[in-house]
Each structure stands twice: as structure tokens, then as C-alpha cells.
Amino acid sequence: MILKKISLINFRNLKKQTINLDKKTNIFIGDNxxxxxxxxxxxxxxxxxxxxxxxDSNLINKEEDFTKVKGEIKDxxxxxxxxxxxxxxxxxxxxxxxEINKIADYITNLNVxxxxxxxxxxxxxxxxxxxxxxxxxLSQLSKNYIKKYNEFxxxxxxxxxxxxxxxxxxxxxxxxxxxxxxxxxxxxxDIYQERKRFIDLINNNVSKIxxxxxxxxxxxxxxxxxxxxxxxxxxxxxxxLIKKYNDSLKKEIENGMTLYGPHRDDLKFLINNDDIKIFGxxxxxxxxxxxxxxSEIPIFQEFTNSYPIILLDDVFSELDIKxxxxxxxxxxxxxxxxxTSNDTKGINKKFLENAKIFKVVKGKIIEKVGDNNGx
Length: 375
Ligand SMILES: Nc1ncnc2c1ncn2[C@@H]1O[C@H](COP(=O)(O)OP(=O)(O)OP(=O)(O)O)[C@@H](O)[C@H]1O
Ligand SMILES: [Mg+2]
What we know:
Blueprint: E1 2-11, E2 14-20, E3 25-29, H1 36-48, E4 66-75, E5 78-87, E6 90-95, E7 98-99, E8 112-115, H2 120-124, H3 127-141, H4 143-168, H5 174-214, E9 219-224, H6 234-247, H7 249-255, E10 266-271, E11 274-275, H8 276-279, H9 282-304, E12 309-313, H10 321-329, E13 337-341, H11 349-353, E14 356-361, E15 364-367
Parallel strand pairs: 3-13, 3-14, 8-12, 12-13
Antiparallel strand pairs: 1-2, 1-4, 4-5, 5-6, 6-7, 9-10, 10-11, 14-15
């Protein structure tokens, strides 16, 4: 898919402008704090209706009280206009000017894979950040996932409240709890299966990419559920979950919360058997994340029949030339890429030759006409 055009109003320091993007490579050049990352963030916001680095309210320009991001996308031969608008804590999401009430119906329309300095949190941050990674990617890939995940969260909240109530109740009604547990398990099975499938698909590519970039064998990801499963088949999962919740009833009532389930999942990033978070060098960790993101590209293609848009925030400045060259080999030719960088020096020729280059100065974007020789 291609983002042909994006229009911004009051998005952070970007006041009002329209950017016509090239269907292949786009490079935004500028000094620090000019608005380069804000541009990528606005595209991410258009795709996912939220930012990866802050709350909604911080996205609105400080002097204004609303922001709107509009985009025109082309997927195969279908054109769509998407928009996301924030006004007074309210979010309006539209496709072709029709308001969409369910986010699940919106976010599969524009798919992005972002590589940014914040990604290191996937490795170094809390399990919640790794689950967030899974949720974001799977929400783009699967309508079923986001639907089941939203339902799961609603039921989980009710079940937790009910467990708290049972703790204080002298004559508890377990039947209601049983029906909540049954509904919860139904959603959990899908979440477990979709996460497992996604991680397996990543593992099909990721160690090869990692080895190719950095010359080290044996990089892979493990799916760490807080219930031990022998496999992820529906009937097996169902039985196992029913038993787990039965066996843990007393403990869950005492704690007033659901102790087992995909809301406690985690991921581990390993080289052979060593946790890269503990043993990996900074470079090894950075490349690990890049390999992870690159390994997603063919998965998007397979699931959606279309490549995602690749957003590379300041990726080149921190990598040595050899690593940069290896990295770009994994970006297919017919894919749209949007890159930010302080200058064009660090960017590979392959990208520069046909790129559309923009300069970003104090929140203003200027197209550099006829200058694509990297100077
Ligand atoms: N809500 C907001 N209203 C106005 N300005 C904002 C808002 N949020 C952020 N900014 C400003 O936007 C500017 C540009 O930020 P951005 O992260 O895009 O910089 P950048 O060009 O990517 O810089 P660097 O090269 O350092 O990463 C910053 O100076 C920041 O203070
Ligand atoms: Mg930046």
C-alpha cells in the first residue's frame, strides 16, 4: 500500500501543511528538533489512531485545541481517504468522510512498520511493552485479533471486579463467575493462537536476518506464557485453561484478580540460550530490534496481500556502513519507505538515487525540487 498524500493541521510543531509523498522513497532531512520525527509520528497516528511515544493530548499543538491528520492511501487499485482528529479529548476517525465507531474497522486500512529509537523499550522495558508490541502488530494484521482482544479486556475487568466482590461475600454466586471464565477462555484461545502464530512466523526469518547483518547465529524469540502449554490447539488450550482457573479459584479470589492469561504474557529475545537483554551489547540489541522489524515485512505481505509502509526514524545515523547496507537489502524494491535523518550523508545510494527529499525547518516542510543527488 502507498500513502500518496498526508495533510496535517496542528500536529505538534507542524501547523498546517500537505505533503505529497513519493510511492517509493521519501527522506526528511533537518537539524535536531525541527519536526522530522513528528512527521513519522503523524503517519503512525493516521494508521493506528494513537502515538507510540505519548498520550493523545500532547499531539495537539500547544497553542491550539485540536489536531487533524488526513491521508490518501492507495492499496492495489483502491483509493481511500483516512482521517483522525482530536478535539477536546474526543477522537474522530473517518474513512472516506464516514465516521467509524469501531477502531477495529479502521486500523487494518493503513499498515505501518516503524523502526525508531523508542523500539529499544521492546527489549529493555517491561513485559507490558512487549505485549504492546504484539498487540499493535497483530491489530494491523488481524481484525479477529483486535476484536477478541478488546472483548477479552472488557471481560477481564468485569471478572476482576467480581473476584474482588467474592472475597467479601459470605454467600458467593459462583455461576456468574463460571460464565465470565468461560467467556474469557473463549477470547484467550484466539489471542494465544494468534500471538503464537505471529511469533512462529517471525522466527522463520529473524535469525537469518540477524546473522546476515551482524554475523551471529542463533537469534530467536520465545513466547513466554504464564501457563505452561504443550501446544496451542484449541481443545487442548480450552481444557488446560478450565483446569487452571478451577485450580486457582481460591488464590484468584484472595488476590482479587485474574492471575493467569495472555495479559501476563511476555517475550524473550535470545541468542542461543542467552537473554539478549542481559548479555547483548548495545549494537546486538539494536540489530536485534531491526531484524525483528524487518522480519515482519513478509508477514504483512502474506496476511494482507500488500506491503506495509516502512517508517525509519533516524535509523541510519547509529549504524555502521556495513550494517546499513545489509539492512536495506531486506527492504523490497516496490515498497514505500519514509526516512528521517539529520543529513543525507549516512543514507545509502540505493535509497538516495530515486528518493524524494524534503527539508524540515521549524515545523515547515520544503520539497527539495530536483535535488536528489544527496548533497
Ligand atoms: N504539542 C506540541 N506543540 C508544539 N510543539 C511541539 C509539541 N510537541 C512537540 N513539539 C516540538 O516539536 C519539535 C520537533 O520535534 P521532533 O521530535 O519532530 O524533532 P526531530 O526533528 O525529530 O529532532 P531530532 O533530530 O532531535 O530527533 C520539538 O522541538 C518539540 O518541542
Ligand atoms: Mg527525531
